[in-house]
């Protein structure tokens, strides 16, 4: 598979390693100094693009790929105010677009456990819930996209409960997230339920960027020859 790699920071370089290990060819590398090469001529022959750039550049990069008929996998966060527009363009172009806030298989399993736990905890309003995320100091967005997805999973279960019953719920209408930045931490996400009696915690700790890179490459392999809009839920089915 020929892959265009958009964004050549630490994640981009890790994705490059995984692509080569899995027998793929990198047909194009786009970074800040050559963004003008993200065009039909340079994307010709690419079976997919993997986009891990910056929040300011992500939307335009995605649209450029879709306009050129190249399926695109995006892992950049903090641009989601334009997600609906990106999906509309994908549909209009009959293209293929895959987005996830986190491509780690372990994190995506945590998302499911988080939703199940939130559903159970709705019965016990004596527990307060908090989310904490820790990343390296170079991470540009806070809170992380992964922490936001965890919060959305909890709040979705609260909304589900309020349709069934009246009264107080476990989680407030706005769920706070604590963001910590230090050293070279790849990523730690923790959801904690605490009462006067005890503490219940679920957590995921990344050892390196490899798990995220591998998931993104698997997503690109999944997306090849497909049309439509996809997420990790589709890949994990």
The CATH class of the largest domain: Alpha Beta
Class from helix and strand fractions: alpha/beta
Low-pLDDT sequence parts: 163-173
CATH superfamily of the largest domain: NAD(P)-binding Rossmann-like Domain
Give a quick account of the main beta sheet: strands, pairing sense, barrel closure. 6 strands, parallel
User: Based on the structure given, which CATH architecture of the largest domain is correct?
Assistant: 3-Layer(aba) Sandwich
With strands numbered from the N-terminus, the spatial order across the biggest sheet is 2-1-3-4-5-10
Count, helices: 8
Mean pLDDT: 91
CATH topology-level name of the largest domain: Rossmann fold
Strand content: 15-25%
Question: Helicity level, as a percent range?
Answer: 25-40%
Instruction: Please compute the radius of gyration using only Cα atoms.
Output: 19 Å
Which oligomeric form is depicted?
A: single chain
Which of globular, elongated, flat, extended, rod-shaped describes the shape?
elongated
Label this structure with key terms.
237 residues, Rossmann fold, 6-stranded parallel sheet, 22% strand, Dihydrodipicolinate Reductase, domain 2
Explain what the structure shows.
Helices cover 40% and strands 22% of the residues. A 6-stranded parallel sheet has the order 2-1-3-4-5-10, sandwiched between helices. A 4-stranded mixed sheet has the order 7-6-8-9, with helices on one face. It has helices spanning 10-21, 40-43, 55-67, 83-92, 105-121, 145-164, 210-223, 232-235, and strands at 2-6, 25-30, 48-51, 72-74, 96-99, 128-135, 177-181, 188-194, 199-205, 228-230. The chain folds into 2 domains: 2-103 and 210-235, 3-Layer(aba) Sandwich (Rossmann fold), CATH 3.40.50.720; 105-205, Dihydrodipicolinate Reductase, domain 2 (2-Layer Sandwich). It is an alpha/beta fold and 237 residues long.
């Amino acid at each position: 598979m020929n892959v265009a790699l958009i964004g050549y920071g630490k994640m981009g370089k890790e994705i490059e390693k995984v692509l080569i290990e899995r027998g793929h060819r990198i047909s194009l590398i786009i970074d800040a100094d050559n963004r003008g090469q993200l065009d039909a001529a340079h994307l010709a022959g690419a079976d997919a693009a993997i986009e891990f750039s910056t929040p300011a550049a992500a939307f335009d990069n995605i649209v450029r790929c879709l306009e050129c008929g190249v399926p695109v996998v995006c892992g950049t966060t903090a641009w989601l105010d334009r997600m609906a527009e990106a999906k509309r363009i994908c549909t209009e172009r009959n293209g293929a677009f895959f987005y996830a806030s986190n491509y780690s298989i372990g994190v995506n399993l945590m998302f499911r456990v988080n939703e199940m736990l939130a559903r159970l905890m709705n019965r016990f309003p004596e527990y307060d819930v908090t989310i904490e995320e820790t990343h390296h100091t170079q991470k540009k967005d806070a809170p992380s996209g992964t922490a936001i997805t965890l919060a959305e999973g909890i709040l979705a279960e609260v909304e589900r409960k309020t349709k069934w019953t009246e009264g107080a719920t476990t989680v407030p209408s706005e769920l706070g997230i604590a963001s910590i930045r230090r050293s070279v931490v790849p990523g730690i996400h923790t959801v904690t339920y605490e009462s006067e009696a005890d503490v219940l915690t679920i957590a995921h700790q990344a050892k390196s960027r490899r798990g995220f890179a591998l998931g993104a490459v698997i997503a690109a392999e999944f997306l090849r020859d497909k049309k439509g809009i996809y997420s990790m839920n589709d890949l994990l089915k």
